[in-house]
Amino acid sequence: MNEFIKFEGYYVEYGPGGGVNVGTPSTHITLGNGTTVEIPTPFMRIDRNLAITPAIVPDGESALRIDFTRWSPLRFGTDLTAGFPFNFPTQDLAVRVARAFDADPRTSWRDTPDAIGTWLRAWVADNEQDLSLPPGGAR
């Protein structure tokens, strides 16, 4: 199977009066040796301010691994940049969750992981998804 995935690492927003804002979502990861690393989050844009990103995890004492088997929604922009606190096994499911969560007026990207997990369990049940979530979600 040959696939091609192109990531973005920054976004550009044009403000009123001709201003330009450039931003870079970032991820903080603690390695096995205790070192915390901040790196730009690679993302695939799905809408103006929505994207999905692969899971980035520590790998041993001093390395990071980009895990293409788990995907997570991301909201970005000058007003707010926030990652979804749960990962999903496919890009398609991460996209569907991102769009549903972002469109739901009862949710906020500033919600706690527990509140987002509650929303996610209800969404999974309402949409008849085959996704087993532990009490804390699919992190």
Structure report:
The chain has helices at residues 91-103, 113-126; strands at 11-14, 20-23, 26-30, 36-40, 44-45, 50-59, 63-75, 82-83. With 139 residues, it is α+β, with helices and mostly antiparallel strands. It has one domain. The strands form three sheets. Strands 5-6-7-8 form a four-stranded antiparallel sheet. Strands 1-2 form a two-stranded antiparallel ribbon. A two-stranded antiparallel ribbon has the order 3-4. β5 (44-45) and β6 (50-59) form a beta hairpin. The longest helix has 14 residues, at 113-126. Mean pLDDT is 90; it is low at 134-139.
Summary of the model, kept short:
By secondary structure, the chain is of the alpha+beta class.
Report the helical percentage. 10-25%
Radius of gyration: 16 Å
What best-fitting shape do the alpha-carbon axes yield?
globular
Q: How many angstroms does the end-to-end distance come to?
A: 27 Å
Main beta sheet: 4 strands, antiparallel
Strand order of the largest sheet: 5-6-7-8
Structural class call reads alpha+beta
Q: Are there runs of 5+ residues with pLDDT below 50, and where?
A: 134-139
By DSSP (H or I, 4+ residues per run), the number of helices equals 2
How many beta-strand elements? 8
Total of domains: 1
- Helix and strand sequence: EEEEEEEEHH
